[in-house]
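Dear colleague,

Thank you for sharing your sequence with our group. We've completed the structure prediction you requested, and as agreed, I am returning the results in plain text so they can be pasted directly into your records. Please verify that the sequence below matches your submission; if there's any discrepancy, let me know and we will rerun it promptly.
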Amino acid sequence: MLRRLIPLQDDTASVKKVRLRLAETLAALDKRDEAIEAARRVLDLEPHQLEELQRTEELFRLLEAWTDLVRAMEIRAEVAGETGEPAEALAVLYAIGALYAEKLEKREAGASAYERILELAPGERNAFDALREIYASSGDWRRYAAACERYLPGATEAGERVGVLKELGAVQETRLGHKDLAFLSYCRAFSERPDDEEVRGAVHRLAEETSSFEELATVYEEVGDSVEK
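Please find the predicted structure tokens below.
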């Protein structure tokens, strides 16, 4: 009966409503594959509404259709961000990361969700830590360094920024072999905390190894009289 109603609808919203009811009915009848296909067709139609997406997610979760659930959640995160619901968008993106790790057992695939979180809220430490773990375990140090750069604008405490910059400098030097970039990262840390002996030592060592003495002099000029060369 519900299938016959679909071509009788006047607009996309009505078609989606009927298709969603059809998917839920098929699921209640234990027709899993048909229910999943019907729910997929709901997602194929735009525009999307948050309430409709939540119902679709619940259906996919009930049917343990994890890949389809990820797709529905990704759409909801995008819609939430576009409609002025940033908190909901972040919560959904974190849930996507957890879903990849716990149900799909592909933790590294959840990196895109955590990257999106940092785009929306650069200071989200939990997302940053998740990316650090994912990229370190996979040996993707280029993306590790990029995650550090993406996180830094949202780090409000000087001590935290210095810690991330030290980590970034170490990765650039020892993992990526870019001593020139490492020097710049340590210089940024030195500007924040000129009294940090570890940072100061790294700045001087890398200035010598990269022949960046003029740049080192400029950094000292910017820092002022708070330290001695």
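Summary note from our side: The domain at 51-151 is CATH 1.25.40.10 (Serine Threonine Protein Phosphatase 5, Tetratricopeptide repeat).

Kind regards,
the structure core
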